[in-house]
Amino acid sequence: MASISQAYSFLGQFHLQRVSILAIYNTRNVRNVHDGAIDCSSSKSRMYNPMLRLPAMAAKASRYNCRSLRTSSEAAAGAVTAKPSPVRKESLKEFSEIPGPSPLPLVGNTLFIVTHKEFDPSNYYKFWGALVQEYGSIFKLHNIGMPPIVGTTNPDDIEVFLKSTLENPIRLGFDSLKSVRLRAKDNYFDKKTGLLPENGDEWWRLRSRVQVPLLRPKNVAMYLPAVDGATNKFMDRIDLLQAETGQVPADFLQELYKWALECIGLVALNRELGCLEPNISPDALPVQLIRHVNDLFSALNETEMNFHLWKFFRTASYTKLETSHAAFLELAAGAMREAEARLEEAKATGDPDRQLTIMETFLNTEGLSRSDVATMILDMLFAGIDTTSHTVGFALYLLARNPEVQRSLQRQVDAVVRRGEPLTPEHLAALSCIVNAVKETLRLYPLTFGNARVLTHDVVMSGYKVPAGMLAMGFNAVISRMEEYFPRPLEFLPERWQRDRPYGAIHPFASLPFSHGTRMCIGKRLAEQEIYTFLIRMLQKYTVTFESDEEMEVKTQLVLKPATQLAFKFHPRN
Ligand code: HEM
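Above: inputs. Below: predicted complex with protoporphyrin IX containing FE.
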């Protein structure tokens, strides 16, 4: 979730990187960097000593141990090798030559930022877009309390910095979430704070244990029937929602939150929450949960994206965050107790063929404590609601605005899935047109502005030497709308993602909605399955139109969010 690969701190969401201790003492690598041949394929032989360059950041990062974080597929494909820069050493430009506003002593560019006419904490996209206009495809910015930022709209640069930092992904941000967990009653989390806010060894301890269960296709597919069931319920609910006025109500985004919460609840909690039931009483659990979801997102947004006043005194938004966090923790703890009871029962009765749920797998995993499992459930709930629901909102808008595309998708869905037939992984695999439509939606409306990493190695970006410790930010949201990388960039053309690439080759680092590498979105497959299911069921049952002349406006609330009312009308198909 959130901007610039989850830009949850003052200027967006950032990823920092850990530094290899092995690398620190390897001076041979300095030569590689200076040759422009920055290659991380072997941490031992290729990395250089970032301590030589940036004492504060590198020293902080170097506390983390080195280990290869390569996934087996990446290793097999040699994917960790960053593309060596073709630029010769003597032609490299200095870091100081990178364009950007002149920093002032002590405050850097902070005044420039907060007084910039496009600076708007409710829409960071405008600000970053304006800087690209002003300074070009690469620029730098100094902001107090953060490493200097080097922003780029060159996908080659993004490839270089993402690949050069695969071993050490540290993300800034989520400080408020971290604080809430550190201060939890009775030290519930044992001073561990979970995947979203953690970094370094602690992040890897968790990530290495949870990523296989969460990303394994078989595990994801296990939830397809339940997600399909919830989505079918949502489709029936649309009839109810439209009963009065003939179109969905102004707060349709809230309805999408209910669908997303129901779906991620089925996975993370193994429970039907009942969010999609008709006529729920105002004090029922689903209504309370939806209230907590809204509180959580607004509180996280306020505590993370604005000045961190909560660090000095308990602000209203911090208290709101604590309250909604506690409500979800109670839910998670209850679901864990149920799962533990099921595991005990299975042990007693012996049922070797039973496929464990994701939570049961976590509970059975050596090295994961109960509180680790609790943070995982919470992070899945927190990262799995606004992301999928906003994407569905944007996809519906694009389909409504492009009736030809919608008709074509309907024809393809009709050819593959019979009405009333349960969705299977084979159906999803046969509907690459839906996959392409989602890729195209996330190209036009990426939830995060891009991807960022604190460099753990010197790299060359657009011919400039960029030292370790800098915060490299790739503005994928800008690249995604550039003619140079995507012909007819503002048009919704899902077929551009077909294997034969009818509009030309696509740079693999130009559109990266789920990020890349060892810290990429761990819920990617679950998210895709949910969104595909939604679109397939919607296209089967309805034709969607947008009953307003307004163009889609966006804002940022952790992630990109529709700011325009979702004035959809769903017309039942015969
Ligand atoms: C359209 C839907 C989604 C998009 C576009 C998206 C995008 C992202 C991005 C860009 C990141 C940051 C990756 C990085 O730091 O390099 C991320 C991280 C994460 N996402 Fe998603 N996400 C989506 C849905 C979900 C869902 C449904 C879940 C629930 C399981 C989820 C769970 C997470 C978690 C736990 C992380 C943190 C991973 C880590 O730090 O190791 N996401 N997501």
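The pocket of protoporphyrin IX containing FE is lined by residues 1, 5-6, 15, 171, 195-196, 207, 264, 379-380, 383-384, 387-388, 391, 447-448, 513-515, 519-523, 526-527 (CB under 6 Å).
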